[in-house]
Amino acid sequence: MNYPFWDVDIGYGILMPLIAVIHVFVSHFAIGGGLYIVVAETAARKAGDTMRLEFLQRLSKFFVLVSVVFGALTGVGIWFIIGLLNPGGTEVLIHNFVFGWASEWAFFVIEILAAIIYYYGWNKLSPREHLIVGWIYFVAAWMSLFIINGIITFMLTPGEWLTTGNFWDGFFNPTFWSSLVLRTGICISLAGLYALLVASRYPSSPFKAKTVRYNAIWGLAGLIVVFLSFFWYKNAIPGDVMAHLAETISMPFTAIDQLYVYSAILAVGFIVFGLFIPKTFHPVTGVILMIVGLLWFGAYEWFRESARKPYVISDYMYANAIAVADVESLQENGLLPSIAYRTGDDGADLYRRVCRTCHTMTGYRALKPKFDGTDVDFIAAIIRGMHAMKGNMPPFPGTEEESQLLAAHIYNQVDHRHIKTIYNFEGIELGRKVYEIRCGKCHVIGGYNDKTESLVDLSDEEYNDLLDMAGDLGEEMPDFTGDDTERQALIEYLKTLTEGGAQ
Amino acid sequence: MNLPDYHFFPAPLWLITTLHILTLTLHFAAMNFMFGGIVVILFCKLQDKWQHPVVLQFVKLFPTAMAATVTLGVAPLLFVQLVYPQQIYSASIISGWFWLLIFVVAIISYYFLYAGSFSKTGGNKLGTYLTVALIGLLYISFVYSSVFSLAEHPTLMKTLYAGNQSGLIINSHIGSYIFRWLHMLLGAITVGGFFVGLLGRHDNRIFPVGKRFFLWGMIITMVIGVVYMFTFGEYLRAYMRSPAIWWLLVSFILSLASLHFFFKRRFVISGSMLFISLLGMVINRHIVRLIFLNEHYNPATIPVQPQWSVFIAFLLCFLLALGAVWYMLRMYFAPKHASSPR
Question: Is the dihedral of CA A223, A225, A227, A229 positive or negative?
């Protein structure tokens, strides 16, 4: 905990993708676009197609402006943002992979210079030289993907590195190859998308029809590669990780569903507007397909990121930058002494260290609604047992006393009125809300850690006994600290439950 | 399971430091060309400035110089973060928003440089494009000076952070880095003067402009550099006793010699001396950082677990990059036949 914590109102889960998704959208195009342009130029030169060469020259200007400027600098932006949001995780990566990154930088140098020479070389270099520079560009750009892919996939599946600490074990990890093929497919598809946008500005003509059709084929080809390699990629993630995800968290699966939906929209768009009616391909259609492409790629990145939860580096470091190896010692000796940057408010310092990476109080993944109407003891108990909660949460890396301090900090920011007053519920509805707040964090009816079976067909007395001894039922179980109104409403609600979880 | 420790350097510290210093010097050379060139072009008094071929040549070169600055800036940032992560990350978090805004401002500046480069109208519009780009670059350089200076003061970082955690803090000890910042800017303008003189060596209107900026830039840079040195306070004595003072002396002599050869129009010798003098200043800067951090952190205490196979892979990639760069530049600048490529 050697770093200060950047306490911004925007959730880290929004800030990071905001820069990262835009960067990868441009940078993958920068790779696929390199292949597209050099293949298309070869064909155009063979056919002596000057119109197409003019189109490619225009595309290369767009290409330089988008990839060399925006792509390169948003890449720098990623460097900045990961250092701000998770310096601990970045430090682990940089110590292990600095020469990987340095190698990527060497290819980046080639890539940038080649892109500039390619663009300025249209009227200066011979066709052969121009094509050579184009190929140099593509190979360098793809090599930078090759390297960065090793580091990104390491974060989800570090594989043997966890036992050997060897660079190559971490780099060529279980998802390396499948991810490389998948990302190459994304590059190809995005090249088609960007080229479609540039072609859309041409007036309707046989040339436009031919170019649009050609670009749509690139888009579709990439999409097919992505579709097939995604299954390979998913299967390469260790089975126990996927099984655990299926049990605890819905996010990666929602992301997969979205990936399928956006893939389908893109496929239909490529086929209908690109292959069937290419002459009328309008810039608006191009922009819409670009937006869908961004969402499509974003869904994949979302899957990758959420599948890693609760880690920033699987099985090594949690998202809140607490190393797995340190948890036990922190639980014994306390987290506060290890925080280098203290503010004088211990509760707030603990909150930033433990929760803030993934949660805000009222905005992104808000904690306030989860604890409105509850009390310090309940919040503290939930904190101590947070590893048992739904949503794949890390363990609390502190002492019992620290959990009370953190709970008091959270309690100060939640609504202190009665749950009944806050939500204006009565009877069973109120009971359902009480269940959601007090029990549902760890026991989802019909879902995660469902305990319905043991809750049906009990008498009032048995329900009361159950609530009286709730805290003794398991190490992570909090006492029932609600008042009589909450208790009665909860019992009313529990009585409506039937075996199997149906209500 | 015994998880691997990450508190190590994957190569000896001297090697990482050498890589850092070399790449940082290259970054500064590109940055000085761009920043200094823009200042000289904007502020020189020249009739029909925006029609002058050397001025237009500079305007065309600025986006490429920006690309070189950004590209060559990645590697030193990587190496400095490896050796000083706790200092660099902490300082950047304290000034989080200002730090993050750097890449946004850089994008804007970059596009304005391209707008100037693509502009066919010339005239005042070019001046406006360059001015906007310059304002952006001033912002970036100021935040860099502020953050990197803050990184050398761990106690100050803790005090500032305790007062505000939102990343809206700029290093409040402006006296400790304002001269550092000015020294960097003026140094860049000096080098900009050199390049303007170099590219305009056959033009008797432009060459004196470059000469003037080179000469006066250097004099003022040296004065500001001395003032900056006296802001070291308690660290001045340690600085005077360190090898940094020798590097400073070498850089000082080389700078003057560079000026001499520039006036003699021996540009290769002058440029080489200027580059070595820049290298000396980067080394000087590195030693100053070690002196400032001495009580808090000594990178030499971090264990080394060499990853030689990975380093060799990097070296091969680097040599490949040098070869590719040389090959492409040679191809691009080789005299061409009259026939059109298309």
Answer: negative
